[in-house]
Amino acid sequence: MEPQQRSPLLEVKGNIELKRALAKAPSRLPLPGSRLKRGPDQMEEDLEPEKKRTRGLGTKVATSRPRATALTTVPQTQGQTAVPKVPRKTGPPCSTAIATVLKNQKPGPAVPAQKPGTTAAPPVVGRKKPSKRPAWDLKGQLCDLNAELKCCRERTQMLDQENQQLRNQLREAQQQATALGTERRTLEEELARVRAQAEQGQQELGNLSTLVLELEERLGTQEGLVQELQKEQLELQEERRGLAAQLEEQERRLQASEAALSGSQAEVASLRQEAAAQADLLANREERLHGLEMERRRLHNQLQELKGNVRVFCRVRPVLPGESTPPPGFLLFPSGPSGPSDPPTRLSLSRSDERRGTLSGAPAAPTRHDFSFDRVFPPGSGQDEVFEEISMLVQSALDGYPVCIFAYGQTGSGKTFTMEGGPGGDPQVEGLIPRALRHLFSVAQELSGQGWTYSFVASYVEIYNETVRDLLATGTRKGHGGECEIRRAGPGSEELTVTNARYVPVSCEREVEALLHLARQNRAVARTAQNERSSRSHSVFQLQISGEHAGRGLQCVAPLSLVDLAGSERLDPGLALGPGERERLRETQAINSSLSTLGLVIMALSNKESHVPYRNSKLTYLLQNSLGGSAKMLMFVNISPLEENVSESLNSLRFASKVNQCVIGTAQANRK
Ligand code: ADP
Ligand code: MG
């Protein structure tokens, strides 16, 4: 069937068109007010007997045709042409449309035109209205009614069919509506999805636009960068060209250098051979040099021995400002056998004897005292001149011979000036101690070239009234110092050491200067405590010298002692002794005792006595290893140029002369 093949949407549209057609079609129902030949009431009346007879059927009809009266009027007003439109199967699917159709069809013909053969129900329209039967013609009336009933039945039947068709159509339409609803929902969902997709797309589009902008911006930056890089590339290419040219140049040079190198290598090989030969030569020379050095030491020592292992130098200090000038001829320095060019070794001191002069009535000629020493330094001699004379002796200490240098004389004769130096730190007036150490450091440096390594350890103590005190004490011991004792360094050891005293390694002048400064400070503190003690105490500066020749396994150890002795003056026995003087006398006795012990020790050594009284004083005990045996000794006798000191000067000169007569055995180096 054609209508069933159409799409549901077209079907709906068709139905809507149909509905419009139906609505627009001219009504074929009787116009209101139109007069019927037979009114409804009349018809009712006509039917009434039949109704009464056929109640059951009438009820049935009434169920399907509630307005049976209207139906009776239809054939009179509606032609048969309208009938074919009613059973249209493709009518509107909605119930409203059906209701409209039914409403429009109500006055339609009771019998469809499709059944032309039906003679029992001729179309009402055009049928000649039967004439009114007389009341008595009941049979005729019955016949009419029967015919009418039959007609109604047929119509009812037809309408039922039609109704059935319409129901079917309605069902189909409902199914279609359901399908369409489902489809609509699907489409709506699809639409929503599409919209969501569209929105998402829109959003993505927005994002993409932003991204595009960003990318464009970045592209711009990158383009700038690319331009820069291109520029840089150009520059680099230029540089590369330059470098390539340089490389070529370098390669050319390298080739030249390689050629030169091969030449040099040959030269090096020959030089190496030469160096090996030189090394052999050097080793031989070193061997010879060492032999020469040992020979030098031997000869040096021989020379020192020839000069005497005990030497005495006399030094007369100048007259100081404010002091009375001695009479001419008081002190004379006669020239040596070779004339004034010879260094002076003699000294004459004139002393006038007042008592002798008084007895004869005329002034007696002064008594002349002549002394001869290893060397005499008149008042004008400088510190450098004095040192030059002893530098060779000091060097003996490096060769392993103990060396001891004393300064002897009365207070104020220039002992401290000679040993430590004058005031003010003037290098010109530097004493023997700093000069000797500087000399030792420099010779040790020279000897290091021959494989010798030297180390020096300094100590500085003071012996006052037979007590030993450390002059290098620092901190709480400074100025007072603890009680120090002289002990052997170890059991069976010959070496002596002072307990509680500082032994300071030194390697340069500045360190020595610092030590001398510290000693001066310590003496100054002691002076305030015990009234000018320094002149009545012995100051002993000792330097332990250790040398080693690792290559030859040689070692030499020797002490260098530089001693500033206490004032040698004696107390006048005729003086009245107060409490201060008694103390002074005790000090002086201690000093004299230690100085005479020193003299006795030197004598004993000189006479090669079996007992040497070292232990009789702290001074000789401390200097035990620096005196006698292989030791070399030098004594400075310091003399005051003043006439008033003539007595003390004579005492000093006599003591020194005795010492000068001593010869202490053949010195032996302390070699291991
Ligand atoms: P001592 O130590 O024997 O008591 P000093 O060395 O203290 O004597 O000397 C006493 C004074 O004489 C000091 O002022 C010192 O500077 C001075 N003096 C000593 N010897 C000399 C000299 N050779 N040249 C110049 N001045 C000297
Ligand atoms: Mg002094």
From TrEMBL:
Ranges annotated as biased composition (Low complexity): 330-339
One Gene Ontology cellular component annotation held by this UniProt entry: early endosome
One family name in Pfam for this protein: Kinesin
Chief location: cytoplasm
Keyword DNA-binding: no
Residues the entry annotates as binding ATP: 409-416
GO biological process terms, semicolon-separated: cell division; microtubule-based movement
Subcellular location: Cytoplasm, Cytoskeleton, Microtubule organizing center, Centrosome; Cytoplasm, Cytoskeleton, Spindle; Early endosome; Nucleus
Keywords of this entry: ATP-binding, Cell cycle, Cell division, Coiled coil, Cytoplasm, Cytoskeleton, Endosome, Microtubule, Mitosis, Motor protein, Nucleotide-binding, Nucleus, Phosphoprotein
Matches recorded under SUPFAM superfamilies: P-loop containing nucleoside triphosphate hydrolases
GO molecular function annotations of the record: ATP binding; microtubule binding; microtubule motor activity
CDD domains assigned: KISc_C_terminal
Ranges of residues in domain Kinesin motor: 309-662
SMART domains per the UniProt record, alphabetical: KISc
Region (Disordered): 25-68, 106-134, 324-371
Keyword Transcription regulation listed: no
Coiled coil: 149-309
Superkingdom assignment: Eukaryota
Entry's family note: Belongs to the TRAFAC class myosin-kinesin ATPase superfamily. Kinesin family. KIN-14 subfamily.
Role, per record: Minus end-directed microtubule-dependent motor required for bipolar spindle formation. May contribute to movement of early endocytic vesicles. Regulates cilium formation and structure.
PANTHER family with a match to the protein in the record: KINESIN-LIKE PROTEIN KLP-3, PROTEIN CLARET SEGREGATIONAL
Subunit text: Binds NUBP1 and NUBP2. Interacts with PPP1R42.
Protein name per UniProt: Kinesin-like protein
Source organism per UniProt: Tursiops truncatus
